[in-house]
Amino acid sequence: MGQEPTGTARPPHPQEVRTMSTTTTHHRRPTNQGDHDVRNAWLSMLLLPVVFFGAFLVGEGLIGLLGYPVGDARPPLWAGVLATVPALAVFALPAVLSSWFAARASRRRRDRRGWVPAGILVALAVGFTVLNTVPMGQ
């Protein structure tokens, strides 16, 4: 009776008993809110392709809805302004978003790194505005 049959495992000693948890823990390093805002300012640049095509669709779509041919023909100034202003607003969204995150990072942590992507996006928005409004006045 004192012998164990072969092929069976004997129970572990009480010190060897291991419990398995069904929960998982995530060890995340504490995030610095300034770093988070700077990262979001840079991530705002990823919106550029989307807003470029969105601004094109808004501008050309509004001209088409007003009944003027899209492309070669020159619509009246009022129609051009009516279609261009919303398109410029769509294109400026990433610059506004990035500037907001940059300002928040500067205010919270005195972290000025977020102004780099904000400056790039503001310069692109100004360039886009000039390219789309100067031909209208000619």
What's the topology here?
Elements: H1 33-43, H2 48-65, H3 77-109, H4 115-133
Helix pairs in contact: 1-3, 2-3, 3-4
Question: In short, what is this structure?
Answer:
Keywords: Membrane, Transmembrane, Transmembrane helix. This protein has 138 residues and is mainly α.
Low-confidence stretches: none
Helix content: 55-70%
Largest sheet: none
Multimerization state:
single chain
Average predicted local confidence, pLDDT: 82
Beta-strand residue fraction: under 5%
Shape by Cα distribution:
elongated
Tally of strands: 0
Could you give the distance between the termini?
Answer: 107 Å
Structural class, judged by helices and strands?
mainly alpha
Total number of domains: 1
Q: What is the C-alpha radius of gyration, as a whole number of Å?
A: 30 Å
Encode the helix/strand succession as letters.
HHHH
User: Tally the helices: what do you get?
Assistant: 4
